[in-house]
């Protein structure tokens, strides 16, 4: 297969998908406050609960989606998920009670495995030694969507907190239509395997990682890193409201700039760093950088400095594709979908813990009874978690690669 067109198709698919996700982020605090009538501290807790629900569904269904893609192929899984995702955004747009928002978030959690399936798609058409860079391209595509999505969401948010959800539904539907006509299947019949219900239990899937000690240790590192990195998704809109007084438009701008930085790192910088230094050294350096920048973010009080540090925050993302590349190299070709499904569950576990932990810290340190007013407290915790991940990587049996 000529890989150029498939790579272009999957990159565009992921980018369009992330646009839909990014559209709703700037207005989520306002939508929750409009429905519940509560303040920003309480809205952050509801937001954390929705993120918890989203991640819980990803954890439970990640291995199922991954195994389905190993049996039926990548194309039908991607397209089906996008159609359901479009419908869930319409539920967001129409919801008048908080429990409907939670239900819609659960649905998007189940369909959120499109990112893991996209990684499996790229693994199908990429030599093992180049997969880390390909995973970086997927991250860059997601970053492109985050440049466009939050900016549009912030602007549409001026029309009301529900407007971006209608736009997200349209984007997801267009994405499904695009894939129907232009996204080819990459998993050939001879590489497919029977669907095994014994492999869809997320806890059993995680347990099987112990059979490959190197992957098991790296999965622990990836897990700790996922908890830390999700601090941005968990508290950024609430943090910037409390620390800087940003409205939906300004939140959208900051998310767009951050997404642009991530795009440049994953689409360009990662393709230079990994071939030169190797996956293991890249992962180690990325974790070290995160320890420092997350701690610094907690105490930022100047808007100009916030924007100045965003490229450094984004550079810390390099640890993720490096870790995925190491694990993918140690996995058979007919199990790439399962691996990505398991990694989706590992990442989802981090996403389950992160919003609950980070929004609880945010509430404690921003409430009227706070011992110290410190909206950046969640970022201090994220820095500690990255330090733990770094120590695990260095002490693990995962050997440096060049």
Mean pLDDT: 81
Q: How big a fraction of the residues is strand?
A: under 5%
Which structural category fits the helices and strands?
Answer: mainly alpha
Report the order of strands and helices.
HHHHHHHHHHHHHHHHH
Overall morphology: globular
CATH top level assignment: Mainly Alpha
Topology at a glance:
Blueprint lengths: L3 H21 L3 H9 L3 H33 L1 H21 L3 H14 L2 H11 L6 H26 L6 H20 L19 H7 L4 H17 L1 H14 L3 H30 L1 H19 L5 H13 L3 H11 L6 H29 L12 H19 L7
Helix pairs in contact: 1-7, 1-8, 2-3, 3-4, 3-5, 3-11, 3-16, 4-5, 4-6, 4-8, 6-7, 6-16, 7-12, 7-15, 10-15, 10-16, 10-17, 11-16, 12-13, 12-14, 13-14, 13-15, 13-17, 16-17
Commentary on this structure:
This protein has one domain (about 5-180, about 210-395): Up-down Bundle (Growth Hormone, Chain: A). The chain is built from 17 helices and no strands. The protein is mostly helical and about 400 residues long. The chain is globular and about 60 Å long. It is about 80% helix and about 0% strand. α4 (about 75-95) packs antiparallel against α5, α12 (about 250-275) packs antiparallel against α13 (about 280-295) and α13 (about 280-295) packs antiparallel against α15. The model has no long low-confidence stretch (mean pLDDT about 80).
């Amino acid at each position: 297969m000529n890989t150029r067109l498939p790579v272009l198709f999957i990159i565009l698919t992921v980018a369009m998908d992330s646009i839909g996700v990014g559209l709703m982020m700037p207005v989520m605090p306002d939508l929750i406050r409009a429905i519940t009538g509560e303040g920003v501290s309480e809205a952050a807790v509801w937001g954390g609960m929705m993120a918890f629900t989203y991640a819980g569904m990803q954890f439970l269904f990640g291995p199922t989606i991954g195994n389905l893609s190993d049996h039926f192929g990548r194309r039908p899984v991607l397209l089906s998920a996008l159609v359901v995702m479009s419908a869930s955004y319409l539920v967001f747009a129409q919801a008048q009670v908080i429990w409907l928002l939670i239900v819609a978030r659960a649905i998007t959690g189940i369909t959120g495995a499109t990112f893991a399936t996209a990684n499996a798609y790229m693994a199908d058409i990429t030599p093992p030694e180049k997969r880390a860079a390909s995973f970086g391209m997927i991250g860059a595509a997601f970053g492109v969507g985050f440049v466009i999505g939050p900016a549009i969401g912030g602007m549409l948010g001026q029309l009301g907190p529900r407007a971006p959800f209608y736009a997200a539904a349209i984007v997801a539907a267009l994405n499904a239509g695009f894939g129907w006509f232009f996204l080819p299947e990459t998993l050939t019949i001879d590489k497919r395997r029977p669907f095994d219900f014994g492999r869809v239990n997320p806890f059993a899937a995680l347990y099987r990682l112990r059979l490959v000690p190197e992957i098991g240790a790296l999965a622990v590192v990836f897990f700790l890193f996922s908890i830390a990195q999700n601090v941005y998704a968990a508290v950024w809109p609430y943090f910037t409201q409390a620390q800087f007084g940003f409205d939906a438009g300004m939140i959208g701008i900051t998310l767009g700039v951050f997404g642009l930085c991530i795009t440049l790192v994953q689409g360009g910088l990662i393709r230079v760093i990994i071939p030169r230094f190797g996956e293991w050294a890249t992962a180690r350096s990325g974790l070290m950088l995160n320890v420092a920048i997350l701690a610094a973010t907690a105490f930022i009080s100047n808007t100009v400095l916030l924007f100045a540090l965003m490229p450094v925050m984004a550079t810390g993302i390099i640890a993720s594709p490096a870790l995925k590349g190491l694990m993918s190299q140690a996995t058979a070709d007919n199990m790439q979908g399962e691996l990505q499904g398991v990694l989706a569950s590992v990442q989802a576990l981090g996403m389950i813990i992160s919003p609950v932990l980070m929004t609880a810290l945010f509430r404690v340190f921003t409430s009227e009874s706070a011992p110290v007013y410190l909206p950046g407290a969640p970022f201090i915790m994220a820095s500690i978690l990255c330090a733990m991940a770094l120590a695990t990587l260095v002490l693990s049996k995962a050997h440096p690669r060049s």
